[in-house]
Amino acid sequence: MAIMERGNTQGARGQPRAGSEETRPPEARSEEAREHHDQAPVRERPDERTDERTTERTAAAMLDDPRVRRWAWRIGAAVVAGVAVLVLFGWRLGVAVAILVVVGDLVRSSRKSSSVAAWQKSSAAERRTERQLKALQRSGYLVLHARAVPRDDDGVSDGRIDHLVIGPSGVYAIDSEKWDKRLPVRTMSHMKLFHGPFNKKDRLDEARWEAQMASSILADRVGFEVPVQPSVAIYGPSIPWKVMRVRDVDVYAGNRARAYLRRRPKILTDGDVRRIFSAAEKALPPKYPD
Question: Which site from 53, 83, 154, 229 is most exposed, i.e. has the minimal number of CB atoms within 10 Å?
Answer without folding.
Answer: 154
